[in-house]
Each structure stands twice: as C-alpha cells, then as structure tokens.
Write a structure and sequence with these properties.
This protein is of the alpha/beta class. It has nine helices and eight strands. The structure holds 2'-deoxycytidine-5'-monophosphate.
C-alpha cells in the first residue's frame, strides 16, 4: 500500500501573507510547495502571449491542459523563458482571476495541481486548496485580512522592490479580484468547513507562522 502524503493547505485572498507562510512552512517541514496562483498566472501569461480571447473557453481549456510551464527552484519557466517577475504584476493577476472563473479551465488544471503531492508532504497555497484540490488535507488554514490592510502591505512590498504604487489603485485592483474570486460559481474562495481561520489584520506575519508551525507539530506531521 502506498504511504499517504501529508498535505497542508493555505487558502485566502491575495496579499494576506499566504506566500510568506507557505515558504516558512516549507523550510520548517522540508515538504514540497504548490503555488497554485503561479499556475493561474502562467496560464494568464500564455493567454496573452497566444492572443487568446478571455471568453474563448475551448482555447483557454486546451492551453490549460498542456500549459508549457515548469517550476524550477524558485523560477517560473514558460517554454524556456523565465517569466517569474513578469507574472508578478497586477495586470497578469487580473487576467488570472478573470480566466479562473471558467469551470473548464479549473478542471483542466486539477490533475496538474494534485500531482504536486508527493512525500515527504506538500504545502499547497491558493484559493480552493482545502475545498476542492486537497479536501483530505491534514491541516487547512484560511487566512483573512481587510482589503485596505492587504493593499497597504502590497504597496510596502512594491516600494521595497523599488516599484512606485498608488494605494487607491491597488485597493481597487484587490477589491475587484476579491469580488471575482469570492463570487465565481466554481470553487469560489471560501474556507473549508474544517479550516482554521486566521485573521491576520492585526497579527504580524511571524506570529502567524509560529501559530501554524505549532499546529504542524501538534498534528505530528513533522518530528
Ligand atoms: O495567488 P495569486 O494572487 O497568485 O492568484 C492569482 C489569481 O489566480 C487569483 O486572483 C485567482 C486565481 N487563483 C485561483 O482561482 N485558484 C487558485 N487556487 C489560485 C489562484
């Protein structure tokens, strides 16, 4: 009998600290990482590159099925091109959340996401990790924070990268994305029934990381 793979899911809206928490847990556990948002962003990149219309369901699903993206160390590589920084933009995120509402696109990406689960374990970061992709996960975390706080964090992060950012514009982008992610019919952003909800609005990210690590130790996912 094959050994089951422990999975920790981290869901929540953008800018809530999922990526930082996922990296922290990956280092502490030695588990693999699935950044599912990066898959949707790579699909958005491919969609623009191939000039596919955002409502061409058949073409989008076909591209999703054979998406020529690879994750090499910390890089996202599309047909041999390193697109890591290109897919981090708000514009790509907007296209990603637009095409992510299409059920056929989500279905086409499902097997690819599930395939990330291998020993010693997986940290899965996204919107529907605990509800749809890994419903049997051992630990399900759902992070929240207000759109204003997430926008402030995003502006700080962009400034630290030397990129100027307009807080009002970023808040509007975040709210528009929340609206699509929360209200889509297929796999909307919502906590799984058995998820642990962590409101990070007034918590610093180190506290969130330590809380999550204690859960991992409690559940004996690592020794
Ligand atoms: O996590 P992120 O900001 O990189 O994700 C970009 C978009 O991709 C997000 O707005 C919605 C979509 N997405 C999704 O629908 N399901 C996921 N599991 C991950 C991302």
């Amino acid at each position: 009998m094959s050994q089951s793979v422990p999975v920790i899911t981290i869901d929540g809206p953008s800018g809530v600290g999922k990526g930082t928490l996922a990296q922290f847990l990956m280092q502490k556990t030695g588990f693999h990482l699935l950044d599912s948002g990066a898959i949707y962003r790579a699909l958005a990149f491919g969609t623009v590159k191939e000039n596919i219309a955002l409502d061409d369901v058949a073409a989008l699903a076909a591209l999703a099925k054979t998406l020529p993206v690879e994750f090499i160390d910390t890089s996202i590589v599309y047909q041999g091109e390193d697109i890591t920084s290109q897919v981090r933009t708000e514009a790509v995120a907007g296209v990603a959340s637009t095409i992510a509402v299409i059920p056929e696109v989500r279905a086409a990406l499902l097997a690819r996401q599930k395939a990330f689960a291998s020993l010693p374990g997986l940290i899965a970061d996204g919107r529907d990790m605990g509800t749809v992709v890994f419903p049997e996960a051992e630990i399900k975390l759902y992070l929240t924070a207000s759109a204003e706080i997430r926008a402030e964090r995003r502006v700080k992060q962009l400034k630290s990268q030397g990129v100027s950012a307009n807080i009002d514009q970023i808040t509007r982008d975040i709210e528009a994305r929340d609206e699509r992610d929360l209200n889509r019919k297929t796999a909307p952003l919502k906590p799984a029934d058995d998820a642990i909800i962590v409101d990070t609005s007034s918590l610093d990210i180190n506290t969130v990381c330590q809380k999550a690590l204690s859960l991992v130790v409690e559940k004996a996912l690592i020794t």
